[in-house]
Amino acid sequence: MKHVVLLLSFAAVALFVAGLTDVAYAAEESTASSGGDGMKFLGAGIAFGVAALGAGIGLGQVGAAGLAVISENPALQSKVFIFVGMVESIAIYGIVMMFIILGQ
Questions:
Q1: Which residues fall within 8 angstroms of residue 89, CB to CB, at 6 or more apart?
Q2: By the 8 A CB rule, do 48 and 98 touch?
Q3: How far apart are CA 14 and CA 22, in angstroms?
């Protein structure tokens, strides 16, 4: 658990430092983009990555519990598939958010 907290802290600091590059170059006037597109791509990647990570963790737990339920009562198979579909929809929402961010 300590490693996860350390990794997340490092990631937060890295994102903060990456966001400061726009402030550092704000006084410069140029026609080129000063990193706004890069932050957009970073945000889209984080949106999809976190959604896929959450869906993967949830699908592992729901799938394991679903297999246990189906082995005891095969009549509940359709309900297990509904729960699996609900967990997979999280990844689909992540993809949709990624395309919304990239479309702006």
A1: none
A2: yes
A3: 14
Radius of gyration of the chain (CA): 20
Which domains can be identified in the chain, with CATH numbers? 35-103 (1.20.20.10)
Per residue of the chain (104 residues), what is the pLDDT tens digit? 777 777 777 677 676 666 666 655 655 565 555 567 888 899 999 999 999 999 999 999 999 999 999 999 999 999 999 999 999 999 999 999 999 999 88
Q: Give dist(CA 33, CA 82) in Å, integer.
A: 45
Residue linked to tokens 């080129």? 32
Q: What do you get for the CA distance between the two ends of the chain, in Å?
A: 37
Q: How far apart are alpha carbons 32 and 88 in whole angstroms?
A: 39
